[in-house]
Specification:
seven-stranded antiparallel β-sheet
Length: 176
């Protein structure tokens, strides 16, 4: 009987431990990556603000070669919305919410496989007349206890995807 009781206590601890850890893990997440592109700031900004150009460099859009995102509104302006629905990448939309000469903000609304919202931004900083540092930021919030999963898995996945996206962007803009 003592062995059964000990086994039960160990099982309860194993089940409870992730919930306890999740109490101390942040519920908000910010992922920031940067890349320097050998092109003037205005040229980089003008290319990135056009949502349709993401087909050429965004790993999220390129994940499904058969995906044809639909854009409503005037592409490259505040209020433009890009909708997607893919067996590989889920469904959702992103909307340009702010544009200045040095920043583009978007709101992301995910529909499937899970509903959720996030925000992202591209920040364009001139390094010289012919070089621009592009910083990609992603902001999200996960409720308890999902914040534990997000902290250990989603953050790394988003960082890798954004790094590759900026490398793709650099390759395209420096060739053109």
């Amino acid at each position: 009987m003592k062995i059964l009781k000990r086994i039960l206590i160990v099982i309860l601890i194993i089940i409870a431990l992730p919930f306890i850890i999740a109490l101390f893990v942040p519920k908000t997440c910010t992922v920031t990556v940067s890349e320097t592109i050998n092109r003037p700031r205005q040229a980089v900004f003008d290319y990135v603000r056009i949502l349709d150009n993401q087909r050429n460099y965004s790993v999220w859009v390129m994940e499904d070669p058969e995906l044809v995102p639909e854009i409503t509104g005037t592409d490259g302006t505040v209020g433009a919305v890009q909708h997607w629905d893919s067996d590989k990448g889920g469904a959702g939309e992103q909307e340009i919410t702010a544009l200045t000469g040095d920043r583009m903000d978007v709101e992301l609304r995910f529909i499937k496989p899970f509903e959720g919202n996030a925000k992202a931004a591209y920040i364009f900083t001139p390094v010289s007349e012919t070089q621009t540092r592009v910083t990609s930021e992603f902001y999200s919030e996960s409720p308890y206890p999902l914040n534990l999963i997000s902290y250990f898995f989603s953050t790394k996945m988003i960082e890798e995807a954004q790094t590759q996206t900026l490398q793709n962007l650099k390759r395209i803009l420096e060739q053109g």
